[in-house]
């Protein structure tokens, strides 16, 4: 009960904290003091009080999409091991549901982008769609490899697979690498997408939401931050040596690792330039390759065992 | 019960006669609708015990030799297919009344069209019940020819006649292969009865594999698997919307039914068959979905997506085969359940999508997504229903497409294959399926977004009216099915349950039910939250101001500047240019002050069809070249004739000797 409560609390607070950490790290790298850690919460509160402005081109879909996106992000948080231990809910092959729920949110935002009738937003939607086409197989390769290696079938179980559970370390390393790339793409972070630029032609996620304002924009920002937390909690659980237990140590380690991942994301964002758009599918293909090699490496384990 | 079942045949035939004889189009339509409704009621009532998972409907008719007897036998598999094929054909006929009204107002006689729709229903009653190869072929042919005649409704258009002819030729190539398989079986069993076929096929023999391949090719042609799909996009873009819907969603499922029927007759398959079906399905899903991404014609796009979806069903069947061959019942059940459910789901959302496309065509006289746009404001009902279908076909939860794909995924990812290499291969296949899912999300976003959202791309395009109730009520019923099977997967499972029991029984079925049960909680919860969030968003947005779309500082935007379909798929098409060739026609400006207008246009053609026609052309040249020499040299003609005579003589003599 306490754990479930902690999960909900983490789902509510951590997205904002992680976004704050990334902002702070980027500020420090560029020699500024930076905004407070909870800046996103202030931003959201301010946006929520505003009125939205809708283009006359749009249909009701445009009004609904941001909130549907937020729901899918939060919904995926229910089955992810946010604290490295038992999630709020889980069932067999819930990672398939997880992947498709994220896909639902993406489709909602893409449709809203096309709804505005602007060529920029259409461009962003097309890019997002192509990236996700390379990304989804990568996720399934990683999840499939981990699931097969441990013989487990739920998202939190496959994420709590440790080195000590047996199996070659390479699977685990490659899974973490692939998930990192997936996280960067899904949450539109550098070097795939630049969340702070204002040059429309080079953006992916940001260009899709050009026309959203007020509470709708708040929903999208919170949704993206939630996805960042959910995704990094998966990686954190993979890295967490105590994952799977329900101890306080495990939970705190997981949150700490999430924070470290946010620092990492912030550092990458400060030190690396954005890739050329043509190079992005190749970068995502690295995740695909990692997943593929991880899957092949699982045979190795069995070969050694026999 | 059997009498009631067989009574549906004369009822449908009376409907045919009335549709042809009556005076007004409305009366013809009513005759077809009434007879189909009566036949559907008769069939469903007589099949109730079978659908409940109980008895089998069986009757044998004596018949003059050489047929001797015709057996009808409806088991749970046939009952499952009949249970949705007939009602959906009925709904399609209702839709036709609204869809064809503009033609009727111009004085067109719809009698033959409604009669043909009745014949389609009739062919279902026969195909799904008959146990005699000859009658099966007859029913198969009725369905094929009726579909062909339905496709060429607009026969005055040469393109449509060509598409129809293309379909007719392809479907008969498939028929030849099927006849070949039946002849082989007949030569071995001296019978045309399926039961006798079954006895032969159940035993291992060298012919078993050959017959399996022949049947597989024939049924693949019927269901438009890659690379036998070339007739499909043409036929589907040429036919009236309800015919495309019925062909794609219902009629061509007969190919998959026949495949399952012979699977049951054959009994335990060999492992290579499973891998064959699995990789064949995977290829279809992969190429089918890739081809959808570059289509301009909405109905062609939906046609290619049929190839993808039958591919997904075949992936399920392939796993079922493997599980059966390996002796792992849980895998068998999961595979066949996923495949069967996907057939039903595909019928639901594909009909819905084709009907919506038809409503777009009726209102705008175009299905070219590069010309459309902003239709959601003019055709709100069509747009909403299309969106439901599009989300379902992209396999997004909480709709029905996700449920069947979830079962297929759970089979692929179960890790229960006997060898590790096998398991790794299956997981790799799951990744390909994930790719297919993501690309179908792209394709459906593109189709819906460009057709219904944004501004009209061609301001001159005249939009007449929203679909009448005779059109949107069938659409809404299909959408209801899509939503209900998504929110209550238990109901979906219950629909396929009796048919599934034919493939395996016992505790594996319960394991499947319990692995799908969580979706029955997760999907409604997700749906409820989505609806709640949507309503809240609606309330929040009430006081919103309206403005122009942000043009990034540019103020003179025009609807022509919106993102187009080809630009939307350009990046993916470039990534997969090896599979998605395009033809480019251009006339570039030549001098500093060009005298001629310049233009560039690209279009993506079907590489398989392109290659096929190329090969046919080459073969024709070869034959023409060879035969061109015969008249010059009369001894060649003489020699050729002699050789032919000897071969025929040898065959006759060889065939007659025991």
Give the SSE map.
The complex is a heterodimer of chains A (306) and B (658).
Chain A: H1 2-29, H2 39-49, E1 53-55, H3 60-79, H4 94-115, H5 119-150, H6 155-159, H7 169-186, H8 205-208, H9 214-239, H10 248-271, H11 279-305
Chain B: H1 2-21, H2 25-51, E1 57-62, E2 69-74, H3 76-99, H4 101-105, H5 111-127, H6 133-151, H7 158-189, H8 194-202, H9 206-223, H10 231-238, H11 241-251, H12 253-266, H13 271-292, H14 298-326, H15 329-364, H16 375-378, H17 380-393, H18 400-412, H19 420-452, H20 469-487, H21 489-501, H22 507-540, E3 545-547, H23 565-575, E4 582-587, E5 599-604, H24 607-629, H25 634-656
Antiparallel strand pairs in B: 1-2, 4-5
Beta-strand share of residues of chain A: under 5%
Q: On the 0-100 scale, what is the average pLDDT of chain A?
A: 87
Count of helical regions of chain A: 11
Major sheet of chain A: size, sense and barrel closure? Answer: none
Fraction in beta strands of chain B? under 5%
Q: Which regions of chain A contain 5 or more consecutive residues with pLDDT less than 50? A: none
Question: What does the overall shape of chain B look like?
Answer: globular
| Count of discrete domains of chain B | 4
Largest interface: A-B, 85 and 82 residues
